[in-house]
Amino acid sequence: MATTPNILLITTDQQRFDHLGIKGVKGIKTPHLDRLGKEGVHFDRAYCPSPICTPTRVSLLTGQYPSMHQAYSIGVTVDPFPRPTIADLLSASGYATALFGKTHFVRREDEIPHMTGEINPPPEFFKTWKGPYLGFEEYQGGTGHTINKVPSMHYRTFLEEAGVDYPQWFPSMSDSYDHHQCGHWDIPEQYHDTSWVASLTTDYIERNAGQKPWFCWASFEDPHEPLVCPDPWYSSVNTEEMEIYEGYREGEFDDRPDLYRMCREKDFTPLNDGSVQEDILGGAVHEKCSIPSVFGESLKDERVREATQATLGMVASLDDRVGAILKTIEKTGQLDNTIIIYTSDHGEMHGHHGLWGKGVTAYEDCQRVPLLIWGPGYIKPRGTVSGLANLVDLPKTILNLSGVPLPQHIQGTDLTPILNGTIDSVQDATLVELRASQTTVNQHTLITDRYKLVVYKNLSEGEHYDLETDPDQYTNL
Known about the structure:
- This protein is an alpha/beta fold and about 475 residues long.
- It has a single domain (about 5-250, about 295-465), classed as Alkaline Phosphatase, subunit A (3-Layer(aba) Sandwich), CATH 3.40.720.
- Helix content is about 25%, strand content about 15%.
- The protein is built from 14 helices and 20 strands.
- It has helices at about 30-40, 55-60, 65-70, 85-90, 110-115, 155-160, 195-205, 235, 260-265, 300, 305-330, 365, 395-400, 415-420, and strands spanning about 5-10, 40-45, 45, 95-100, 140, 180-185, 215-220, 225-230, 275-280, 285, 295, 340-345, 355, 370-375, 385, 390, 430-435, 440-450, 450-455, 465.
- The chain starts with 5 loop residues before the first strand and ends in an 11-residue tail after the last strand.
């Protein structure tokens, strides 16, 4: 066993906890992800610190809950940005560090200036600038998801250097963009963001074999909506086997805060003309009341089979790329001194309860995430475990696995006693935070082995579920 392991953190975006073969997903196979879980540890009760992109991603960077690091929602840029990051700490301890793919640590319009210090650098800038960023010595990435993006930064450079007519694959570059589009996407697989991030990752692993230990974060944008997928993966899904989640049951929101109904009816969104609307949380009136990012979407309900097929196809594609990464680790002789952590920043409702997306509706669908930790030289092969885990626990766990001293500011719980087989659980409860904006919902969810309690700063109502007898949360106790 090597004393200092390589660490590969693989994150997807908006992947459900049950979209894994090891969880019995129908319609696809995920042999490489299942290998990670069976030969390592599959945390079946893993949660995100917040069911929104930016808060969880900054928690993964800092080991802090959103209420501490203050990047509490989409559209928030913390200034000054919380440091040190996990990459800062690992770099200072002798690690090579790299990040490839999606960041979304700050609001979208601030991403390029935050990274580069340049307000509006020309596209050719990214041919030579490749970091550093937030402690990562190397960085390459882009912004957006599938068809809704205008390729930017290093991803645009990749497409331009390939000499392909890429605007044809991105309707957002014309007037034909449909936010609700679901189904097949005609981009060739080799030009898809998933293939590109995986290629950057395998190249990095090869370049650093036999050198000093490395920490690499491979950050994939799939299977986030818009729910579209290229072949061969879209066509590879067995549509006769795939399962569709149950939609809205009439009256099922009658026993919980009214925001559930409002999210489903899409009344709780910014008004197009910028006018004000009533805030149900206390009756205050303010500008552009909004909650990201869960909605009822009738157009997706009508296309639910295409949406499900595309989502499963994206997961199958991710599994294939994880397989390529595993093959590279083995080929370069790093199998016994590398730890792989696979997870997602939050889940996705996927039509369950008549809702799509993620956010304020406190369901397992969007609060719970896949979490697989594998490393033959370090992790005991335990398979599926039921001990509670949270993504805010990962920085502390990574630092302990790497032998790096813990800073005082770090939160979370060390998961290594579970990974080495010492005990089955390290905490009897975990937290999920959601602060939608300065003036609307401030929600906290406490999760134990059996129960879920949801409280709101500005509401007298709350939620309480028995997850053992009511795993889909139909009865608010």
